[in-house]
Specification:
Elements: H1 6-26, H2 43-63, H3 68-75, H4 79-129, H5 134-149, H6 152-162, H7 165-196, H8 198-219, H9 232-243, H10 246-272, H11 282-309, H12 312-329, H13 339-363, H14 369-420
Helix pairs in contact: 2-6, 2-7, 2-8, 4-5, 4-6, 4-8, 4-14, 7-8, 7-11, 10-13, 10-14, 11-12, 11-13, 12-13, 12-14
């Protein structure tokens, strides 16, 4: 038999890639789909896995913020150690998620990865709940971060695996709402558990994660076929190629800046509100931080419209300018008098900036879109991880004014970077 020409091989490759989506749907267990790819029974279980996975990540990351005062007394540590607990969660999460998708695609499949990540997260929550020292608590947070990295990205991939194009938009809209609700309700519920018993908060998270594990084990088919991407070495080569592109690094740095500002302000604002002359209880602090989440929910719809109407870069610049204005109010004497408004406005403005930047992340390098969004996600969560550590010296020197000054500088840098980026 003669050798197949390279051109025909390329055609076969394209056809295989185009047909992969239908192949996945047809190879799922019959109770989930019919031949048209439409979901039949157990749809609510699949959606529950996806939504719960995207809810628990930001929920567990933000739940700890109003617990700072209680945890300081429990472990007899300074606020820096509690800020470190945010970092040791986010650094493993941001780094590990670069590879969790590749492991799912090439080696282990969706079911094994998401079940394994859920079990790991569950163990991390239980270890945190029964931690006798701050060091055991920090180890528990590392385990939670690694586990979360094997859940959220795979849950996003499941949207493409289990649902046809006709209904994917609605599912992705629900994913966005789940993520924002997690970030919003995390401080609110965390404040409640801080007043009652902070350890019960982590036990509740362990139970919710165990439910996700059970759903994933029952619902996700073991025989689900995966795409043939190539060898693991090729995957690493693609990651490196994308990582060295200026446009990708620019968008990733913008995500880093926004997460850096958000976690720095929220973390140290949570601490300063427990001090004199404010002396606010944990549940009130949690309620105030939840206002930022509600601001983000409102901004999500508006900024999505603006992103399509006036363009990605213009909407992002508008968002950064609003962040800058809000931060300037923290330098005034009476910032505390309008704190509810400032927190709502902060959530609104950051989401306004994030929506177009998220869109830019999937458009900036279409050749390797998945790798680009992985690197973008990793960089922005690094901002979340490093924020409390890098901002701590400014907090010691100037309290909320020091944090605002640092964040203003980061915002101005982001605006300059936006002006240099080519429109997508």
């Amino acid at each position: 038999m003669g050798k197949i020409p390279a051109k025909k091989l390329e055609i076969f490759k394209v056809v295989k890639e185009k047909n992969y989506e239908q192949e996945i749907l047809e190879n799922l267990h019959p109770k989930f789909t019919n031949f048209s790819g439409q979901v039949q029974t157990a749809e609510w279980l699949i959606i529950t896995i996806i939504f719960l996975a995207n809810f628990l990540g930001p929920f567990s990351g933000n739940m700890i913020l109003p617990m700072f005062n209680v945890l300081k007394l429990e472990f007899n540590v300074e606020v820096f150690m509690l800020g470190l607990s945010v970092a040791v969660f986010m650094v493993p999460f941001s780094i590990t998620q670069l590879f969790s998708g590749v492991l799912s695609d090439l080696f282990y499949g969706r079911k094994n990865i998401i079940v394994g990540g859920s079990i790991l997260s569950c163990l991390g929550f239980l270890l945190a709940a029964f931690s006798p020292t701050i060091w055991i608590f920090l180890v528990a947070r590392v385990i939670q971060g690694i586990g979360a990295a094997f859940i959220a990205p795979i849950a996003m991939a499941m949207v493409g695996d289990f649902f046809s194009k006709e209904i994917r938009g609605k599912i992705m809209g629900g994913v966005a709402v789940s993520t924002t609700l997690g970030a919003t309700l995390g401080p609110l519920i965390g404040g409640f558990f801080a007043n009652f018993d902070w350890r019960l908060g982590f036990i509740a998270l362990a139970l919710a994660t165990a439910l996700t594990t059970l759903f994933a084990f029952i619902v996700i088919p073991s025989n689900q076929k995966q795409p043939v991407i190539g060898r693991s070495g090729e995957a690493l080569k693609i990651l490196w190629e994308v990582l060295t592109r200026k446009e990708v690094l620019g968008v990733g740095l913008l995500g880093f800046i926004l997460f850096f500002i958000r976690i720095s302000v929220y973390t140290y604002l949570s601490d300063i509100l427990t001090l004199k002359p404010y002396n606010l209880p944990s549940h009130i602090i949690g309620g105030l931080l939840a206002l930022a989440g509600f601001g983000g929910l409102v901004a999500g719809l508006i900024s999505g419209y603006l992103t399509d109407k006036i363009g990605r870069r213009k909407t992002a610049i508008l968002g950064f300018l609003m962040v800058l204005i809000v931060l300037c109010f923290y330098l005034t004497v009476g910032w505390y008098m309008i704190l509810p408004f400032l927190l709502f406005a902060m959530g609104f403005s950051i989401t306004t900036a994030f929506t177009p930047i998220n869109t830019m992340a999937v458009e900036v390098y279409p050749k390797y879109r998945a790798a680009t969004t992985s690197i973008y996600g990793s960089m922005r969560f690094l901002g979340y991880a490093l924020g409390p550590i890098l901002a701590y010296p400014l907090y010691v020197v100037g309290l909320i004014g020091g944090i605002a000054t640092l964040s203003i500088g980061a915002t101005i840098f982001g605006l300059l970077l936006l002006l240099k980026l080519k429109p997508t």
